[in-house]
Amino acid sequence: MRPMRPMSAVERFLERLLERPSARLFGTRIQPVQIRRRIERAMEHGRVASAGRVRVPDRFTIRIRPGDLAALDHADDLAVDLASHALDWARRRSLGLDARPRVALVGDVTLRPGDIDVEARFSGASNGPDPADEGITSTRVFRAPIVRSQRATLEVVEPGGRARTFVTGSGPVSIGRGNDNSLVLADQAASRHHARLQARGGMLILTDLGSTNGTRVNGQPIDDVAIGEGDIIEVGGSVISVIAIDED
Question: What residue ranges define each of the domains in the chain, with the CATH number in brackets?
Fold first, then answer.
């Protein structure tokens, strides 16, 4: 596995110089778009090539001054929006995620007004964000559902409009038109062994198995991604909706 390349001191200086927050320059409030861009850069810098795919971080701690945090409208909803944006950003670029992104918005009295500090890591890392660090207050966290079992309820609509409900079992679920799959699709556009669903790292992961026509989630092509309730999976000409995931 090729490790993340840390930003050099020169890169960090240029980033602060060229992209200094407008809040500090002009006395305006921090805007959500500024935080989204910082998360994107953190994911870009955190790319890791492993086992033939490129993975990006999925855990983010956003530190800003407590006053800036208090000035954000609907901060709890913003944390959810930021996590969803990180997921969409990775999916659009076919980048792998170990888990569905999670974001913490944290007030840090050591920062200057207008500063935005982003700490990004992988969900399996041992040195993750710790909101209990000294000097840090006012934490708002979006926590993604933790999947402790493989059980999920799917609505499957195959070409021609045939619809049915499929409930996953205790092990990995293979999807394709071959009769040896767990979920067999009457779909000529699907590969014999098209995709696989399995619990990994506390999340339900969908993996494309090198299919001919690819796999999409919410309209975006994917290789390997965490999914959740409400996601729409496209396999060939079939549409699979994630109705519910058992978190027990």
Answer: 30-121 (3.30.2320.60), 150-247 (2.60.200.20)
